[in-house]
């Protein structure tokens, strides 16, 4: 124990720099677009008809007495009735400012920052494509959920849809679960944050001595995304569970892909030179080098711990 506490602060290694490759980014971007286009179409025909998607033959339409999810729970109703906004339409319009405006703007501003600095210009294009791909992925999942669960929006449940933005979109009555706006807010914010952390940008890192348990970008982005989601709830466009699930799915789709796409620089170097090294060196030398690299990684982990 005394040996560990005696280690100087400089002995703790910072996170290893990570990079990605263009083929990984392009593949993820294309997959995100395909998922957005395909997943929502997997819902039942009656659901697709009711949500306004044009089909040649629509046989049945959703309604509360047969095939829609209209029953709710005491948790959702208690929160919606307690925190209902005085002006529903104003709350809903304000929510779009946060979810579809400020959160994507924050993420893309961070992603495109290298264009205005001396950083790698290619990072801007890569990060922007990853953010768009993650957003498409999350919206594809949200679209499938909407047409599969067919949950009635609270404004229709309470019969006040004429006071909301849904008054001009009656076909969206059964698309409450889960919130697409909350998903957009959290997927763009978390994707931008995780990319900034992987690029080791100062505003995305937790700085020692700042007194804050989170980075400035995490604090600001979390506030914007949460405000947008809450306004969807108080505006009676979504139940509380809708925005909670939307935020969760957004975080998963925002955090997951960047960390899967990026690899440590030394790992990428090993991938790029493994074939050449195998040709130039014998099997014994290659095995020795591999053992040395494993030992170095173990030493780094011990220092961090």
3D architecture notes:
The chain is mainly alpha-helical and 305 residues long. It has a domain at 74-267: Vanadium-containing Chloroperoxidase, domain 1 (Up-down Bundle). It contains twelve helices and two strands. The protein has helices at 2-5, 22-38, 45-50, 74-82, 88-111, 121-149, 154-157, 180-198, 216-234, 240-261, 265-280, 283-304; strands at 18-19, 263-264. The chain starts with a helix and ends with a helix.
Question: Quick recap of the structure?
Answer:
It contains 12 helices and 2 strands. By secondary structure, the chain is mainly α. The protein has a two-stranded antiparallel ribbon.
Q: Determine the fraction of residues in helical runs and give it as a percent range.
A: 55-70%
Strand runs, count: 2
Number of helices: 12
CATH architecture of the domain at 74-267: Up-down Bundle
Low-confidence stretches: 1-14, 54-59, 274-279, 301-305
What structural category arises from helix and sheet content?
Answer: mainly alpha
| N-to-C order of helices and strands | HEHHHHHHHHHEHH
CATH overall fold name of the domain at 74-267: Vanadium-containing Chloroperoxidase, domain 1
The profile of the biggest β sheet is: 2 strands, antiparallel
């Amino acid at each position: 124990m005394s040996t560990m506490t005696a280690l100087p602060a400089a002995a703790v290694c910072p996170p290893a720099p990570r990079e990605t490759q263009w083929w990984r980014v392009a593949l993820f971007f294309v997959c995100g677009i395909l998922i957005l286009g395909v997943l929502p179409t997997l819902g039942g025909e009656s659901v697709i008809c009711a949500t306004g998607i044009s089909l040649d033959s629509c046989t049945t339409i959703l309604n509360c007495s047969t095939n829609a999810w209209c029953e709710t729970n005491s948790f959702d109703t208690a929160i919606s009735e307690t925190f209902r906004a005085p002006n529903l339409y104003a709350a809903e319009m304000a929510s779009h400012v946060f979810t579809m405006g400020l959160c994507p703007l924050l993420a893309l501003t961070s992603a495109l920052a290298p264009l205005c600095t001396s950083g790698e210009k290619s990072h801007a294009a890569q990060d922007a494509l990853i953010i768009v791909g993650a957003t498409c992925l999350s919206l594809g999942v949200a679209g499938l959920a909407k047409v599969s669960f067919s949950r009635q929006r609270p404004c229709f449940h309470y019969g006040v849809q004429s006071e909301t933005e849904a008054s001009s979109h009656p076909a969206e009555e059964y698309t409450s679960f889960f919130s697409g706006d909350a998903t957009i807010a959290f997927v763009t914010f978390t994707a931008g944050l995780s990319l900034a952390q992987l690029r080791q940008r100062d505003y995305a890192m937790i700085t020692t001595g700042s007194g804050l348990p989170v980075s400035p970008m995490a604090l600001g982005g979390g506030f914007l995304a949460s405000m947008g989601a809450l306004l969807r709830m108080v505006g009676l466009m979504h139940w509380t569970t809708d925005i909670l699930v939307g935020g969760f799915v957004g975080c998963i789709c925002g955090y997951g892909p960047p960390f899967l796409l990026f690899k440590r620089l030394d790992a990428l170097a090993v991938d790029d030179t493994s074939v050449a090294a195998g040709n130039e060196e014998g099997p014994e030398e290659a095995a020795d080098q591999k053992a040395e690299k494993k030992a170095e990684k173990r030493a780094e982990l011990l220092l961090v711990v």
